[in-house]
From TrEMBL:
It comes from the Bacteria. InterPro entries: ApaG_domain (IPR007474), ApaG_sf (IPR036767). GO terms for biological process: error-free translesion synthesis. This is Co2+/Mg2+ efflux protein ApaG. Residues 3-128 form the ApaG domain.
């Protein structure tokens, strides 16, 4: 598990290889990831948006921006956490992701970024 703390918000990431399949006449590698966002600060926060950089060893880096996570903009009170699962398709058996969440302090509407550590994807058969 990979973890990083920014301004009292701890991000933990666990990855998994889900399998391979053909899409548009090309082999794809499916990876899953589980992220837990734990509020270790003294203030309630809300996750408003996300920014991802996705690295595929056979392709260029892809950037994705979006509202919330999996359709939600969770408010996380001190001592609480929010966990969600998502996935990524790559055209190679090795890759990585990193990024940040845009957060807002509930008490005063101050905005800040929480960094997501780089986490790697690798199909078990790709590393020997």
């Amino acid at each position: 598990m990979i973890t990083q703390v920014t301004k009292g918000i701890k991000i933990s990431v666990q990855t998994s290889f889900e399998g391979t399949f053909f899409k548009n006449y090309k082999m794809h590698y499916a990876f899953g990831y589980t992220i837990t966002i734990e509020n270790q600060s003294k203030d309630a926060v809300q996750l408003t948006s996300r920014h991802w950089k996705i690295y595929d060893s056979l392709n260029d880096m892809e950037t994705l921006d979006g509202e919330g996570v999996i359709g939600k903009k969770p408010v996380i009170k001190p001592g609480n956490s929010h966990t969600y699962n998502s996935g990524c398709l790559l055209t190679s058996p090795i890759g990585a992701m990193k990024g940040h969440y845009n957060m807002v302090l509930i008490s005063n509407s101050d905005k800040f970024r929480v960094y997501i550590p780089t986490f790697k994807f690798s199909a078990p058969f790709a590393l020997n």
